[in-house]
Amino acid sequence: MEIPQIIRFNGVDYKLMGAGKYYLSQSNTNAGRKHAKGLHVAIWEYHNKRKVPKGYCIHHKDGNTFNNDISNLECMPISEHLSKHAKKSFNNEEYRRKNKADLLKASEKAKEWHKSKDGREWHSKHAQQMDYSPRFECICKQCGKTFLASHHDAMFCSDNCGAKYRTKILQYDGICKECGKPFKFGKPKPSAPDRLFCCRRCAIVYSYKQRGKKND
Question: How far apart are CA 108 and CA 158, in angstroms?
Answer without folding.
Answer: 43
